[in-house]
Amino acid sequence: MLAPCLLTLASFLLEAEGQMSSSFSRSLRRDGRCIYSFSVAGPAEDACSEPGEALAAVRELRSEREGQQRELAELADRLRLLESWVVRSQGQLSGQQGESLNILQRLQELERENRQLRAGHCPRIGRESRQGAQSLTGSSSRQRTQPDGRASSWSFENRGFQELKSEITEIPASSLIQRSDPGGQDTAPDSSVGCGMLEWVGDPVTFQKADSILGKYGVWMKDPEPVPHHTRDTIWRINTVGTDVRLLYEYNDMDQFVKGHPSKVYVLPEPVESTGSVIYRGSLYYQKRKSRTLLRYEMKTETILVQKDLTNAGYQGVYPYSWGGYTDIDFAVDEMGLWVIYSTHQAQGAIVISKLDPKTLQKEQTWTTTIRRRSVANSFMICGILYTLNSYSNRHAIINFAYNTNTNTSKVMNIPFENRYRYNCMTDYNPAEKKILAWDNFNMVMYDIRLSKL
Ligand SMILES: *[C@@H]1O[C@H](CO)[C@@H](O)[C@H](O)[C@H]1NC(C)=O
Which residue puts its alpha carbon closest to atom 4 of ligand 1? Predict the structure, then answer.
């Protein structure tokens, strides 16, 4: 029982860009007691503190954590305020541009406040005073527990900080591969122009950096098949931090997007779960919060046209990508159309891909792969081929696996992919531009790609 219990919650409370090489781990002993260990690498062995000093350091850490919790609670209160305000305004909105502007102003105020909070969000832990390691023994608890062994007095889930509950379990995806296809049958049908196998991904180009805690993770999108009055230049963005995510920002073009000037803000009738949404043919496709329900929200009419349960799909952290964050259900768009990437109990956590009818959200066809969904950081479709990314936090990640729905074959890949900001929570392909869009630690980035010729 020990192995599955061993979680490495690296950077649990440290900023992802933090340089600290510290780690926190939890394990369950046979007698049912939990052991929590916190360790920080010292420059040399003799630099490690005496047990007494280490205990003092642990005490200090504990009080720091309490401070952080207070700040997070305060932040969560502000988020709730923001959310309730948005919900209240929803009724008055009904397409009035003036109201939208008021909302924006109010949002900006709140974001400014949140930014101040964020400055103290994740204090660095001084290396000098805390070298050494110390184990703490606390009694086993069903509740989520703190590093110091106490049961949490508040739950991360309720606060909407999904990131904090993410567990890092980067199992090499290749270990699950049972077959590969060296025969090179991995080609897309002739019907899709310019299709091929992915063979190269360029360096990320950064377009926008979110300036508030609400932008730590999110999703930014373009429509490969826009309907009037939108164009291929139109950009949409959803900040997905919070418990009641409903705001969809629209920007006329990249210039306005970079300046942070939305042309419209939609208030979605149902809240959004995580970062799996896409825009396709004038609709936003997304997963309804705390459900396996897929929604099609048409922007022209500002209504939900279709609502459909994704049968058997795991949700709310049952089969998420390795960064967690309730990323259980991920839409994708490619040359072939609309897809959804998820997993089920029947598939034992392996990635399941369904091709969807974009009008009705009916499944057209379903494939079960051999790759565990929890072991990959993200995935996307190009020309009917699923690609998986092996890490969301390693700067030098690789696209390590491909599953071709045209031939039902899988293949081990080794294409370098840079997570420049070390916290990639969204990776989507845009078939109109033949580029990959990603959201990496507040940064909205884009990658050039190259496909092999047929
Ligand atoms: C691939 O798998 C799908 C779904 O199981 C099936 O419908 C299809 O016939 C298979 N295609 C090939 C080429 O084997």
Answer: 367
Residue 333, CA distances (Å) to 108, 150, 182, 302 in order: 32, 45, 26, 21
Å from CA of 328 to ligand 1 middle: 24
CB 265 within 8 A of CB 104: yes
Q: Decide if 439 contacts 218 (C-beta within 8 A).
A: yes
Please give the model's pTM, rounded to 2 decimal places. Answer: 0.63
Q: Cα of 401 to ligand 1 centre, how many Å? A: 19
pLDDT in tens, 53-77: 556 656 666 766 676 666 666 666 6
- Cα angle 316, 404, 396 (rounded to 5 degrees) comes to 65
Contact status, residue 355 vs residue 339, Cβ threshold 8 Å = yes
Question: What is the tens place of the pLDDT at every residue in 228-273?
Answer: 999 999 999 999 988 899 999 999 999 999 899 999 999 999 999 9
**Cβ(260)–Cβ(209) below 8 Å:** no
Kindly state if the Cβ of 185 falls inside 6 Å of ligand 1. Answer: no
Distance (Å) of CA 439 to CA 94, 191, 238, 293 = 30, 31, 11, 24
Residue whose tokens read 């219990």: 5
CB neighbours of 453 closer than 8 A, spacing ≥ 6? 196
> Distances from the Cα of 398 to the Cαs of 85, 208, 344, 378, 412, in angstroms?
42, 24, 25, 11, 11
Residue 96 is which amino acid? Q
> In angstroms, what CA-CA distances link 253 with 207, 209, 232, 259?
12, 16, 9, 10
User: For 21, phi and psi rounded to 5 degrees?
Assistant: -100, 65
Atom number of ligand 1 nearest to Cα 366 = 4
Type of residue found at 3: A
Phi-psi region of 383 (alpha: psi -120 to 50; beta: other; left: phi over 0): left
Q: What's the rounded Cα separation, in Å, for the pair 73 and 355?
A: 41
